[in-house]
Amino acid sequence: MRQLVLPVFEHDALREITVGRVDRFLKALAAGKSYSTAKQAKTVLSLAFGLAVRYDALRENPVRDTAKLHKPPSQAKALTIEDIEVIRQAARNGVGRRASPVHRRTVSWSRSSRCCSARRLASARCSRSGSAMSDVTVSPATVRICGTIVSPKGKPTHRQHHPKTQKSTRTVSVPPFVAEVPCQRLVLIAEEDSEHLIFFSRNHTPLTTDNIRRRLRAVLEDVEIEGVTPHSFRRTVATFLDRASGPDLAAEMLGHSSTKITKEHYIQPDERVDPVTADILEALAPRREVPTMPSDHEEAAEDQAEITALPARNEMHYDSRVFERVDWSKRGEYMQRKHGITPQVADDALGDPNRIVIDPDYNSTSGESVRIIGFSTIADDIVAVIVLQHEGTEYGVNGWSANEKDRRIYNEGSYAGEEGEAP
Questions:
Q1: Given Cys at both, which of 59, 254, 346, 377 links 399, Cβ 3.0 to 4.6 Å?
Q2: CB atoms within 10 A of CB 103
Q3: Mean pLDDT across the chain, nearest whole number?
Q4: From CA 218, how far away is CA 228, in angstroms rounded?
Q5: 81-265 homologous superfamily
Q6: Which of 44-48, 78-82, 102-106, 221-225 has the lowest mean pLDDT?
Q7: Coil, strand or helix: which one is 385?
Q8: Is the Cβ–Cβ distance between 337 and 241 less than 8 Å?
Q9: Domains of the chain: which residue ranges?
Q10: In what order do the strands lie in the sheet with 136-137?
């Protein structure tokens, strides 16, 4: 109000502040400063004029009829594995002219803990050594997020005994190398008070967000990676989890109540479309020409030739060593990322002697793919695997944990088709 609104409207009477003036003010603010600044000013003005309307100082709120502010397009950007390694080396080796040993250690510890726990920056600095014995465990490696650091205006920075939202209180499993970070810190502060912070300044006071950002900038001063902020690690975790298991797990890890915020602000969009579309759209391929009838001479030659019976399709696909030639090079990575099924688990299910073979797959539009339902001892689960033979090579197309229908088929030991399915 003092910095944005009053310099423009402080000498005007309420009746002189019209819809047009407010609209021009907000548009100029969005163009000259930023969308978020204009949105904040619009909120403050709306509240002020709403109060004036309730006290009959105005008949209408002029902010209500102003044009909608258009948020500029933005896209979440995650770090790559190569970027993370460069940052790790910079923190370890001290790249950056202003990076002191304290800077490097702080950034290294903060980067390691945030890179796999996806904690907010304030939450990453508030684990305590008192309850840390229960908040941080090594076997299994877990970290409990149950507080945050706040810096109220006019008051000292301190630990707040609850995180940003109720959903944010959670215990997350982390890789062992991440759990080593707070454990090393616990050793350093073993003689301190039970309420002592794990991460702290040289004066044993809480680290503010400005501390971490300044130290990160110092470490990355000479590194050719632009736009890296402490929040970049949180977006990276969300993106990696989404690629491996979907947005639900990413939202749960970040402490979001729904996936909407996670998708909009934290997950980097994946430009790749599921390659299974190529197999599905193959059904739209042009029909091959019908071969011409053989001449009498050709029929006579065929009658004299030795006739060798061709094996049935299933016999072509399956022998004593089931699917030893299945090729997962084109679809194995996608299957693991989308459904959590590795090629080893899929091959294990294909090798089940009690497998059920549905040829063609009852969901196939082209009639070329085959569905195999088998039990994987590796995954300890029934798995449905889709395979396709193309130009003499048997390709693995996809695989997932069997649905209710496929489980029933496997338990019954056979499949005779259902009413309405193509033969």
A1: 346
A2: 21
A3: 77
A4: 12
A5: Intergrase catalytic core (1.10.443.10)
A6: 102-106
A7: strand
A8: no
A9: 1-72, 81-265, 311-412
A10: 136-137, 142-145, 170-173
